[in-house]
Amino acid sequence: MENSTEIVSFVLAAYGNVGEVKYLYFIIMLLWYLSICVANTVLIVVIYVDKRLHEPMYILLCNLFVNEISGSTSLYPLMLSQMFSDTHEVTLPWCFLQMCYIYTCASVEFCSLAAMAYDRHVAICYPLHYSVIMNTGRVCIIIMIVWMYSFVNCIFSFSFVIRLRFCGNVIDKVFCDHHLVIKLACSVSVLNQMSDLLFAFVTIVIPFTFISVSYMKILAVCLKMSKENKKKAVSTCTPQIVSLSNMFVGCIFHFVDSRFDQAYVPDKVRIILSVYLLIGQPMVTPFMYGFNLPKIKESCKRFLFNRK
Asked: What pTM was computed for the model?
């Protein structure tokens, strides 16, 4: 054990020494990160330029695309820089910043899905009052509340970590993980140990409860609809269900990897699964919500191929 006063950086041990293959990994990660940024940026620009898309649902989608770029930026630049590092060290301030950045974006993702579920609930259950309840001003307020809620939640949870003194500095992951950082502390209170679970409850359980209630009400209304309207309602809700399912799979991989011994799982597989959420979700979102929706698809064609 090292003296706690000497810990000024953490070592991200999961990178290891990959030799010359690091150039291939670097190119793959860079291209994937650029693809995420381009796909989401195109949709943001299309929604901003096309005034026909200045509706509550598309504004909420635009916020989701912005968050996908933010979430990816919390991981990929550090991963890319670490590929050419011999020590794989990251200073404590940068480690804490990355944790706060990643977990804030995760909270924004779940809360944004909750806001979109509420939007679909109003659109399907109260179609005649939709334009009154979900106007542009109210949507902007909802988005602001989502970001403020996520930021305050993150600051509160990480206030327990920042005050810790550390006796170890090796994190067996490719990014700074809340639970693994706490395990490196010299002494940990019960509240410190529970802080990441508390964060998970506020970030996942509360929005999921809100989403579940919204979809149960939508389901109740859909059962009374005609076959055509039922099909239309299901088609608008399917992307959110797929996205939410993907988020849960990613969260399960993350929490299992942090808390249980994965010695029987190959290192490369374990690393990919631990960052699955930040690999898959930022690319799933633009294709499930953006390029898959008829109005956005038409706007993209006009924007990219037929500007006149």
From this structure: 0.87
